[in-house]
């Protein structure tokens, strides 16, 4: 096993724990930056160009018929193919944290529609499901299994926020384990079904999941309820007959006590497990080989790489599978660095040197979480992992065309040409500036409903004065489709009662001015 240091990474502050990598045809794309995207890359998706020990980033674009995809951290990802032998695939993206620390319960399908040496264009579609909808969560896994010529996605585990009815001021942002239910998602018919299995008693998060044919293996993980990393190993077998699906669970021996581990595939049946934590205050520096074949799993220990002193002594680490035996690892940078949130990155190659020469690093998708932002959690237990699946081969891109957040001429425009609503009439071919502040892109505003989505100000019939007011004021905006829903959920504002000031009595001299003189003789006649 060979450990390689990456000496130069452009805009490394974007690569924080919680991001994911998508691999399309050997090209690796970064997704899930910390914070909202900037104008230089409104989609928040970047092509990673790794050459030797240098890593550069180039903005990617979305097609016009794409939905808005927020930069989700710690989601569950995996590839969805039409069949086991199919070469075409798309990514399933479910859950995760938004930059506002809200949890998403939406599920997206993302595919690559065009790739040139200068530009990559994606299509992202939000899928509507019926049935037992999984709650918003993160730190979970999703896999695809195949049975009887059909396929279904298997979702399990994760964490979510404490239910609203149980929240107090002290535990408002506390998280709990999701119920140990298994969800089967059929994208062909748009339905989802949950299964409660007696073998699964405790909720798990940041576990490892491996899928092969009709079987999913669940290894390790951490339970918040018991604060344990039990050496668990479960086997889920899914049968897809003409009627209702069948899900069975078996508890297998030989599990490993680990959370936040990374798995990379080195051959058709062999995987390597790297990293993670074995206790609250101890990283797991041991590596294992996992073999899946003939409906069985075998886990054996293997030689570990020569870890550097920085890796051995750091408090947290994170990383992801890069495909075909390579893993990208990251550790926090030293506090003395000029960029405080920068990290150090390494590439761990688990294959033999001869095999590396025959084929460079290629894409292989493994669904598992990765280490959470240390600022949002304790060093180990809540250092929650992220999905990371990608490849480090050389890309046919212009070396000078890389991401620079200060270079507005290099920014992507496709994010402005989405279909923001059902009544959207903005077309890249016919659009002309509507507001005085527009130049070559339409003005957009963020709707605060749910995870948030961008809409065109012109489609919302906003006047220029109102648009300027909303851009300057610190208020939440809701688009025309969500304004009624937001009003129904708002707490009525408390009416402020106006104070009635008592009238001051007139002074004596002032009263005389308003009193007519009365003769004494008249008063005598009045009372006689």
Features:
single chain, mainly beta, Neuraminidase, 2 domains
Structure described in brief:
The protein is mainly β and 528 residues long.
Query: Total number of β-strand segments?
Result: 33
Individual helix count = 6
**Strand portion, in percent?**
25-35%
Shape: globular
Tell me the CATH superfamily of the largest domain: Kelch-type beta propeller
The largest pleated sheet is described as: 5 strands, mixed
Portion in helices: under 10%
- CATH topology term of the largest domain: Neuraminidase
Rounded Rg: 30 Å
Question: What top-tier CATH class of the largest domain fits best?
Answer: Mainly Beta
CATH architecture of the largest domain: 6 Propeller
Summing up helix and strand content along with how strands pair, one would put the structural category as mainly beta
Oligomer: single chain
- N/C terminus separation: 126 Å
Strand order of the largest sheet: 2-6-5-4-3
Query: What is the average per-residue confidence, as pLDDT, rounded to a whole number?
Result: 78
Low-confidence stretches: 335-339, 359-401, 405-414
Number of domains: 2
Protein name: V(D)J recombination-activating protein 2
GO cellular component, one term: nucleus
Keywords: Chromatin regulator, DNA recombination, Metal-binding, Nucleus, Zinc, Zinc-finger
Family: Belongs to the RAG2 family.
Topology diagram in text:
Elements: E1 2-5, E2 8-9, E3 20-24, E4 27-31, E5 45-51, E6 54-59, E7 61-62, E8 76-81, E9 89-94, E10 107-115, E11 120-127, E12 130-131, E13 141-147, E14 150-156, E15 159-161, E16 175-177, E17 181-186, E18 191-196, E19 208-212, E20 215-219, E21 233-239, E22 246-251, E23 262-265, E24 270-274, E25 277-279, E26 282-283, E27 287-293, E28 296-302, H1 309-313, E29 318-323, E30 326-332, E31 343-349, H2 353-358, E32 444-447, E33 453-456, H3 464-472, H4 483-489, H5 508-513, H6 520-527
Parallel strand pairs: 2-6, 7-11, 12-18
Antiparallel strand pairs: 1-31, 3-4, 4-5, 5-6, 8-9, 9-10, 10-11, 13-14, 14-17, 15-16, 17-18, 19-20, 20-21, 21-22, 23-24, 24-27, 25-26, 27-28, 29-30, 30-31, 32-33
């Amino acid at each position: 096993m060979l450990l390689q240091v990456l000496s130069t990474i452009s805009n490394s502050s974007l690569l924080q724990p919680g991001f994911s990598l998508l691999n399309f045809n050997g090209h690796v794309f970064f997704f899930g930056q910390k914070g909202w995207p900037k104008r230089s890359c409104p989609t928040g998706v970047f092509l990673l160009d790794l050459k030797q020990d240098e890593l550069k980033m180039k903005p990617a674009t979305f097609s016009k018929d794409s939905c808005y995809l927020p930069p989700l951290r710690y989601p569950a990802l995996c590839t969805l193919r039409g069949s086991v032998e199919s070469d075409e695939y798309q990514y399933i993206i479910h859950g995760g944290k938004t930059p506002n620390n809200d949890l998403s319960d939406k599920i997206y399908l993302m595919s690559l529609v065009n790739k040139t040496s200068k530009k990559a264009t994606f299509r992202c579609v939000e899928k509507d499901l019926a049935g037992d909808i999984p709650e918003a969560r993160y730190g979970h896994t999703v896999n695809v299994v195949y049975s009887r010529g059909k396929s279904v996605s298997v979702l399990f585990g994760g964490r979510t926020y404490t239910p609203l009815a149980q929240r107090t001021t002290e535990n408002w942002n506390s998280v709990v384990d999701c119920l140990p239910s298994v969800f089967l998602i059929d994208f062909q018919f748009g339905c989802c079904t949950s299964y409660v299995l007696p073998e699964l008693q405790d909720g798990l998060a940041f576990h490892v999941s491996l899928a092969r044919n009709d079987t999913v293996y669940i290894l390790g993980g951490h339970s918040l309820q018991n604060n344990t990393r039990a050496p668990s190993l479960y086997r889920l077998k899914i049968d897809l007959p003409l009627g209702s699906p069948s899900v069975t669970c078996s508890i297998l021996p030989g599990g490993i006590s680990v959370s936040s581990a990374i798995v990379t595939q080195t051959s058709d049946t062999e995987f390597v497990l790297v990293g993670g934590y074995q206790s609250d205050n101890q990283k797991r520096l041991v590596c294992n080989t996992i073999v899946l074949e003939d409906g069985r799993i075998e886990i054996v220990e293997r030689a570990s790489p020569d870890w550097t002193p920085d890796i051995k002594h750091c408090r947290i680490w994170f990383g992801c599978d890069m495909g075909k035996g390579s893993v990208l690892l990251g550790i926090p940078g030293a506090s003395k660095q000029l960029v405080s949130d920068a990290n150090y990155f390494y590439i761990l190659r688990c294959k033999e040197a001869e095999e590396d020469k025959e084929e460079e690093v290629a894409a292989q998708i493994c669904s598992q979480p990765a280490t959470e932002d240390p600022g949002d959690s304790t060093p180990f237990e809540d250092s929650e992992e992220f999905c990371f699946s990608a490849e480090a081969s050389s890309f046919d891109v212009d070396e000078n065309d890389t991401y620079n957040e200060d270079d507005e001429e290099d920014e992507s425009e496709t994010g402005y040409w989405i279909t923001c609503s059902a009544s959207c009439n903005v077309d890249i071919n016919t659009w002309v500036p509507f507001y005085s502040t527009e130049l070559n892109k339409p003005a957009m505003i963020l709707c605060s409903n749910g995870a948030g989505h961008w809409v065109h100000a012109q489609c919302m019939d906003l006047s220029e004065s109102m648009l300027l007011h909303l851009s300057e004021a610190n208020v939440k905006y809701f688009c025309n489709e969500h304004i009624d829903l937001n009003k129904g959920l708002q707490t009525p504002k408390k009416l402020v009662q106006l104070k009635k000031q008592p009238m001051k009595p007139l002074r004596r001299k002032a009263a005389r001015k308003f009193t007519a003189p009365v003769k004494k003789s008249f008063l005598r006649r009045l009372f006689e």
